[in-house]
Amino acid sequence: MVLDLFAGPGGWSHALQVLGVRDVGLEWDEWACKTRAQAAQLTIRTDVAMYPAHVFRGRVRGLIASPPCQAWSMAGKRLGLLDQPLVHQAVADLAAGRDTRTELLARCADPRSLLAAEPMRYLHALRQGGEPEWILMEEVPDVLPLWRQYAVILRGWGFSVWTGILNAADYGVPQTRKRAILLASRTRQAEPPPPTHAERAEQESLFGPGRERWVSMAEALGWGATDRPVPTVCAGGGPGGGPEPFPSGARKTLTDARDRGTWKAPAPSAAPRPRRGRTSRVVTPSCTCGNCPWSWSLRSNNQANATVRGAHEPAGTLFFGHRANECMWVAEPSPSAPGGLDPAPDPIRITAAEAGALQTFPADYPWVGTKGQQFSQIGNAVPPLLAAHLVAPHLGKTLTRSDFVLAA
């Protein structure tokens, strides 16, 4: 089997399903387990830190682990950085067969920090049976020093190991989500898959095939297609023939806004690239009233230093958990807009379906729970498209362009 620790709502599992393989996921969160059940994924609802690892001995071909990132993430208090020496100690002890977790846990500022050491407990138990054949682990970039400690131990056990930081956008994910990755194998050279995309498109050369341009949010959501134009809200409806004004304070989705009128699709080359992290001021399609073109960007949270990306760019890292981390679509007039426009439409909260699509989950993925519970699952998940690129070589599979269709 493929054993998936901290399986969440199924980022790794969906990638494996696309590649024709099923895993067994260990997950504690009630709503993530319900989502997995609706997605027909095998799950043991349990605390990974309490489940006996020896029961899997003799059964595991591959081990996947994406420990919870809240203790280390920029979205949290990052107490994991304070606990890092204790986590390193736990990894070293578990690799030697000593379980000191209870003692070390009592000294942690955040009890979740020590979960990053749990994969070593399973690896030590499986090692006695010569398993697993391969290992994939993923976390936020600050965990990279811990992955390097794992790498030293695993090389001593006969694995080829690679560790480093990968950007999900380099693999076709419409999101510049950077993650610390560990790849290990007993049977092949461990190395990251070649990137398929780049910030700017690259031509084919003697050194290899060219890479496509990063996938934008608009592309991933299908905006700009003839049957799915970029949602642009007219704030000046009336006798001129435009749609009605966008209701002040209304909590509408962009899909709702799109359905309120008729829009023109943009020319493919109409969107220049602004500097990273700055609000986009790009001409986007205007409504048929012709006098109020708006440009949409995604703001990652409500904080002053929030990342703001235009719809023609990949999103910044999506993370959720409390109101300060709400992702909002924000509108502003393009440079070509006439003077005297009414105020821009109110920000529009991103939907779970849109957020899931930006993580490369299918449009119809069966998220379960309240909106908050769904957003929490989405923000914590591994993008399935990135996961598929990482796992395919270890399964002897080839990932094709048709395996993941982002816009639906």
General description of the model:
There is one protein chain. Helix content is 25%, strand content 15%. With 408 residues, the protein is of the alpha/beta class. The chain folds into two domains: 2-201 and 383-403, Vaccinia Virus protein VP39 (Rossmann fold); 216-313 and 319-358, no CATH class. The strands form three sheets. Strands 3-2-1-4-5-7-6 form a seven-stranded mixed sheet, sandwiched between helices. A four-stranded antiparallel sheet has the order 11-10-12-13, with no helix packed on it. Strands 8-9 form a two-stranded parallel sheet. The two termini are 32 Å apart. Mean pLDDT is 80; it is low at 226-292.
Give the CA-CA distance, first to last residue: 32 Å
What is the CATH homology-level superfamily of the largest domain?
A: Vaccinia Virus protein VP39
N-to-C series of helices and strands: EHEHEEHHHEHEEEEHHEEEEHHH
- What is the beta-strand fraction? 5-15%
Query: How many domains comprise the coordinates?
Result: 2
Tally the beta strands.
13
SS-derived structural category: alpha/beta
Rg over CA atoms: 23 Å
How are the strands of the largest sheet arranged?
3-2-1-4-5-7-6
CATH fold name of the largest domain: Rossmann fold
Largest sheet: 7 strands, mixed
What's the CATH class label of the largest domain?
A: Alpha Beta
In the CATH classification, which architecture of the largest domain applies?
3-Layer(aba) Sandwich
Unreliable sequence segments: 226-292
Coarse shape: globular
Percent helix? 10-25%
Summarize the model shown.
This protein is 25% helix and 15% strand. Helix 1 packs across helix 11. It has 408 residues and is an alpha/beta fold.
